[in-house]
Design goal:
8 helices, 241 residues, 9 strands, globular, 17% strand, alpha/beta, two-stranded antiparallel ribbon
Amino acid sequence: MPIGINCDMGESFGIYKMGNDVAIMPFVTIANVACGFHASDPSVMAQTVQLAKRHKVKVGAHPSLPDLVGFGRREMQIHPDEITDCIIYQVGALRGFLEREGVPLNHIKPHGALYGMAARSAEVASAIARAAMVFGVPLVGMSGTLQEEIYTAKGVAFIAEFYADLDYARDGSLIITREHAAVAPKAAAERVLRAIKDGVVKSIDGPDVGVRVESVCVHSDTPGAVEVAQAVHECLANYLD
């Protein structure tokens, strides 16, 4: 598909299971794999890379703030240099598993609170860009934010994504919740189609806000995530056919 479907996955940890990666993998084209700071562990990372390889799904790193207890969805006051180091550390770990399987690192997509901070902080966005430059891969983010402005200014390739299962605020920012609410698969697919065709999404406050869609994100921990991913996959397949 010209417009890919990316999914945040590999987020189980030890005996704690998060999401159904096996069931959702056939409906996505890109896997954003957790790297241990908000979720995942070495074995989960290895298994997720192997699963993606079997399905011919591209793999990128999904690094986070060091917040395992809060699932990376709590903001932290952290020096930009430390952010860069945290990302390099996490991506380096994932790349080891990728190299063992002969799979290239496709991209980096910051997770949760770090993602939201980069959308409005030039310092945070710059710190993330510096880490991406080490690996020479694109960064995934939101169009029209400091993510796009700073990443591209640093010479890092940028992939604009749209969220099928999260709400947008009136100012176009993403509403990042500690726990994701369920969304109706048909409604998620319809809003994706509208975002692609019209370049807008209805904000939680009412007015439409502008968006650009080069990839669509679904979360493996959203209730009914498999059905949402399947509906979005079928919608894109029909639209782009």
